[in-house]
Protein: Histidine kinase
Organism: Fulvivirga marina
Amino acid sequence: MTIIEKIPKIWKIAYLLICGWYAINYAVSSIIEWQAFRPYTTSVLWNGFYLFETVCILVGLTFIYTNWLFKFKVPVQVVGHLFGVFFYFMCISYLSYYFDYYLDGLVYFDDWKEYMLDLLSWDAMRIYDQYLITVAVYYIIKYFESLRQKEQEKSELALKNKEMELSLLRSQINPHFLFNTLNSISTLISTSKEKARKVITQLSDVFRYALDSHSGDKVRLIHELDFIENYIKIQQVRFGDRLKYELDVEPTCLSVGIPPMVLQPLVENSVKYGIAPKDEGGTIKLMVRRISGGIYFEIKDDGLGVNAKKVLDGNSTGVGLKNSDKRLRSIYGKYAGLHINARQDGYTVSFILPPEQEEQKVETNRALEAVSA
């Protein structure tokens, strides 16, 4: 890649616009002088062309010089630009003197002095403007580039924070399930070796699924249901006939992608707070249906209901249900959070995920919200 190719497009456009503007200025002034003051003197046109070439070179050098000064503090930049405008003026003035006076035989000091005194009037401002306009264009471009960079960094930081939040929520949910399951196994291992072996086999499948869930953002519902079934079987070893489980899933939903281990905390909540404290136990029903607004999930139990310890009101030390709610809202938006319905005869926890074709729109909206946040 050449040096020219490495220059950002915005700087190339700015340079061409500035040079184009001065091309018009020098062309008009040269033609006027050629027609009105020095009729048909061809050197006037050539002198204007040479001066224009010099201005284009100095504009490029001014960009480079200003970019170098930009690394220093403001006082240093101010002093540097004072020197820069003086150097720019001397270059243009000496070159103009050479074409207008020196080539015509006016080579003495008095001739140069007279020319410079005339130049220090209105023409001096025109030369100063050339340098100052170039510097102003540089700082304007730098300002908008810094704004764009800040917005980009802000957007990237928001997305990284969102990813970290999701990772944290998942890391909280997974140990929450695994440690509670191990506690259940510890009480069974001393009573029945055969049951213990069976539970260990089921637990190995649970561990495998929990570990594999970190490798992707979504899993098929059928795999999540297998995971839930292994969890229920482990708990049924502990609770026996007191814990029943019913599954009602529309076949077309089995291939739907969902966040891994998002259902397990909801089922565990029903076991721990609804069925386990109830002397006669109860039934947990898991239903999945397609509806007009997406995919409807419902976990329902006939446990203690409103008499159970609440886990979504901030009074519980459990984090599974709270984090499931946060996790769903983080992935699918605020309308995908959990809906809790407490009854006298149990709890119902439900949520709706957008249909597959809508998930890309959700991701786009999340990105836009992160940028505008």
Observations:
- The two ends are 38 Å apart (CA to CA).
- The CA atoms of residues 340 and 349 lie 5 Å apart.
- The chain has eleven helices and seven strands.
- The chain has two domains: 3-120, 153-372.
